[in-house]
Description:
The chain has helices at about 5-20, 25-30, 30-55, 60-70, 75-90, 95-105, 115-165, 185-200, 200-215, 260, 265-280, 325-345, 370-375, 390-395, 420-435, 450, 475-490; strands at about 220-235, 245-250, 280-305, 315-320, 350-355, 360-365, 405-410, 435-445, 460-465, 470-475. It is an alpha/beta fold and about 500 residues long.
Amino acid sequence: xxxxxxxxxxxxxxxxxxxxxxxxxxxxxxxxxxxxxxxxxxxxxxxxxxxxxxxxxxxxxxxxxxxxxxxxxxxxxxxxxxxxxxxxxxxxxxxxxxxxxxxxxxxxxxxxxxxxxxxxxxxxxxxxxxxxxxxxxxxxxxxxxxxxxxxxxxxxxxxxxxxxxxxxxxxxxxxxxxxxxxxxxxxxxxxxxxxxxxxxxxxxxxxxxxxxxxxxxxxxxxxxxxxxxxxxxxxxxxxxxxxxxxxxxxxxxxxxxxxxxxxxxxxxxxxxxxxxxxxxxxxxxxxxxxxxxxxxxxxxxxxxxxxxxxxxxxxxxxxxxxxxxxxxxxxxxxxxxxxxxxxxxxxxxxxxxxxxxxxxxxxxxxxxxxxxxxxxxxxxxxxxxxxxxxxxxxxxxxxxxxxxxxxxxxxxxxxxxxxxxxxxxxxxxxxxxxxxxxxxxxxxxxxxxxxxxxxxxxxxxxxxxxxxxxxxxxxxxxxxxxxxxxxxxxxxx
Length: 493
């Protein structure tokens, strides 16, 4: 059996095994089937390449082919066959072939090739069998290694999917491009973050509040748009013989009137029939039908649409400095996971920035698997805190087309130095000109509220010790209320 056929048989065996053990997983997540198919195709190609490169009989195949072409039976052909027998582990009849060599020298020229033909035919049979057995052993080993690894990955994905669904996340959003990249360590890390959202009511409250922040402000507008609709329009079809609509002159015998056909019953009138037929003047039924075709028609309809800026992109700035180590950092990353999942489910661009004294960035896209996000979130600086580079980078992102209307959320304990004046001015400019919102989530109680409260549109504080949440600042509302209070005495006058 050719190597390609053996590989195809192995692929069918692997598919059947996976389908039996992971039917539930494939039914819930269609993307996994596509990923598995790609992995199988890659394995089939790589395995074929590996076996062809490692084939221990390649040299003997060349020698056999050479002897078949030269048609010379000599000591060299016998020695080459003996080396093959030793490699393949098959018996070599030394005395027989030596005897054939001796007799060949005494034989007539036309009979000297007979021993060579016998040797090469036997050599070819043994070579095909030995190579087939070697292929089979290697394929069984490689297949088992591949399927063991694949099942381990699928078990990990099943565990992850169950964990995500248990906490209300849509697992299918994250399983794309994840197979082969997930590890048990990633699973355990995610469990820890998800537990904060499930067991800590205050933490979950923050996440839900942040996720709904823009939805509360959603507005709908009614637009008049043109739509093309198709209606069935009747059209006459002369080729469709459905109903009689009149009479006509012709020579179509199948539609000729019975009175005309009666002319053929008499010899004298039959001549008249022939003449009328020749001149196409027989009275015939005229038939036609009706067909219906789609005719496009434009109509104007009213429809509701959400304003795009209300569900804009997200930029998350996560503090991973030394002061955040432990519970605060885990809560911050749980929030990032929650909001990243929300952004992906709503097809909203989401950009994550980890910061300490430096920054690391990650963009959540439709091709980003959860393993990539977890690997990124696991990174920590555990050094000092400088939020300025993260905010500068966020402002640059807001200049790009995909993030022009982005909302920024900074999650930190805010144990840091004052922000530069030029950075605060740039934030204010971006807020007014671009319509962006800058929000903060303070984890812990060691912060300077008087310094921070004018920098963010919304600010929350979460104390991990007391597990209480409080909205400290609603910047726009406070400023508006202060302006109204100043104007009220003038109005009263």
